[in-house]
Amino acid sequence: MNTTSSRQRGISLIEVLISLIIAAFGLLGLAGMQTRSLSMQIDSETRRVAAGLIDQLRERVAANQEGYTTALNQGYTQTFAPGAAVLIPACANPDACNASTEVPRIQVGTWMLDVQRQLPGAAAVIGPTIAGNANSMTVTVAWIEPNATVIAADAACARIDAVSANPKYRCVTAAFYPG
Length: 179
Known about the structure:
This protein is α+β, with helices and mostly antiparallel strands. Helices cover 49% and strands 14% of the residues. It has helices spanning 2-63, 65-73, 102-118; strands at residues 78-80, 123-128, 137-144, 169-176. A hairpin with an 8-residue loop joins strand 2 (123-128) and strand 3 (137-144).
């Protein structure tokens, strides 16, 4: 009876070691899932910011429909590349900006500055959906997604030449109507 109990003591130690190894692999799996979850949360937040910025521009367009319609009819487009300086034009008469020609350009400039401040490696393009047609306006915003794991470039970035071939960039495009 004594010999049987001494053999069982050694077996229980092996069982404990095996269970510790299994638990360690389980904890490693949980740590990997937590890391991936955090990465996806950051990507989701960046997409939310981009959508919010586009919504801000849509509100500015809705507030000055006449000005944006005039600008789009004149073929107004605005693009800025990653790292480029954003120039905000000044009014010809500081006491009375022209709502049809100057205000839309100033609003787009300040909006692009907001985009640049809030999105990593930001780029954007704004213009009529169909050249010379003020019926709709298309906006594309691009940003660097640091956790991108895809090999191919985002097709939504095709309107922004500076980032269209870079697989680290993600883009969102929206069309809306000034009038």
